[in-house]
Amino acid sequence: MTATALDRIPALVAGLRYSQSRGITRPESWRREQLTRLRGLLRDRGADFEAALREDLGKSGTEAQLTEIGFLVSEIDHSLANLASWMRPRRVRVPLAVQPASARIVPEPLGVVLVIAPWNYPLMLALSPVIGALAAGNAVVIKPSELAPATSALIARLVPDVLDRRAVAVVEGGVLETTALLAERFDHIFYTGNARVGRIVARAAAEHLTPVTLELGGKSPVYIDGTVPLHLAAQRIAWGKFMNAGQTCVAPDYVLGRPEILRELAPLLAEAVHDLYGSAPAQNPDYGRIVNAAQFDRLVGYLADGEIAFGGEHDAEQRFIAPTLLAKVDRGAPVMRDEIFGPILPLVEVSGLDDALAFVGGREKPLAAYVFSGNPTVRRRWEQETSSGGLGFDAPALHLVVPDLPFGGVGESGMGAYHGERSFRAFSHEKAVLAKPLTPDTLASTIMPPFTARKDALVRRWLGKLRERSV
Ligand code: NAD
Q: C or N: which end of the chain has fewer Cβ atoms within 10 Å?
């Protein structure tokens, strides 16, 4: 990775703004061409992207295809298939008092947008917002994560070769470069990462009154009761948790259940991990690595916070931490304070549903919550009595693959959402357009002064009707 020179940043952003303001990004044909070229790049250079992801995170090729490259290709296909209808102005009804008139919502590009990406899905999270930004007709600066340097370098090398350089730029670097970018004026900032930096981004954006989307994280709980086949639940929990070595924003963070359920679940989770990664995950190419030494040390520190039911092996040189189950974790333990973001799964005992709901309700709103229960009342209560970015019944992480579901957090897990049409809307301004013919003149004779007795009666009758309609 080669950091972009700081003194180049203002001119680079100004160049994009100039192109965008001249309208080159507006035509549907330009948007389609960019999306098609990006899809071509992902397909043609898939092997290079896989190699970079392996280098940064020890990611297997299949997982890279599933969760990063393939995900992006599907997102582009979906955008191309729907772009024309998303771009079309939508007519809306006009109230009687304003008629005759026509009213439409016209989506227009916001302008120049900044996408700041994290390291855990360093390709997918850098480019997925870009798909929405380009579909909506914006110019974009992409800032990949410096903590996934191989992927960052590859994005910086390949993307400008295929996309229109007048409207798309990649800035590489870390805090200094991002800080320099944040000093510039953008029309939207799309940030994915932790809440501490989310606050820095929101503060910088406030200076320019720039709207932000903040895709953050949090401790996503799993609740499980005895009404589901526990071995099947264990398989899905283990898959969602240990994918990408636990470094997934929507990964189950911890499991809540009654003591007897958790006792039964623990060996089933061990079996599930064995089915997924064999008896030696350290040798298994399907199992990932921790991104860097600082994260490794933080995670190893958590191993003392409970009884290790299985796993616990780790190797600093390889940045390897085995899939680990921590039983009998105290609610106040350090591992229960911050998002774990690694392959350590605490089991936390609760006395039942009310206790679990109160526990989750007393904490910051997570990015996701998962409920394994066949009891409709339990499901309904989670849906109605808790708040989280998303909610999965019997399946972690899958809600984010459905393009028509908004993906985003709430409260401490973020603001705004994207994917599918919502990505297009996130990067568009919905302009209200009203056209009222000058003749017949229905305004001067009804709602404009001078207010004659006739107009007064008319207005009162009209407001009365409105009131009647609202009861
Ligand atoms: P990170 O350290 O790569 O940081 C993200 C970006 O912020 C990087 O591009 C980095 O350069 C920039 N940055 C870091 N410090 C900065 C500073 N002081 N000023 C300006 N910019 C700065 O990634 P991370 O934050 O460690 O990512 C992990 C977090 O992201 C977790 O909390 C995870 O849950 C969350 N996450 C959320 C989603 C989602 O879609 N909601 C997806 C992935 C990760």
A: C
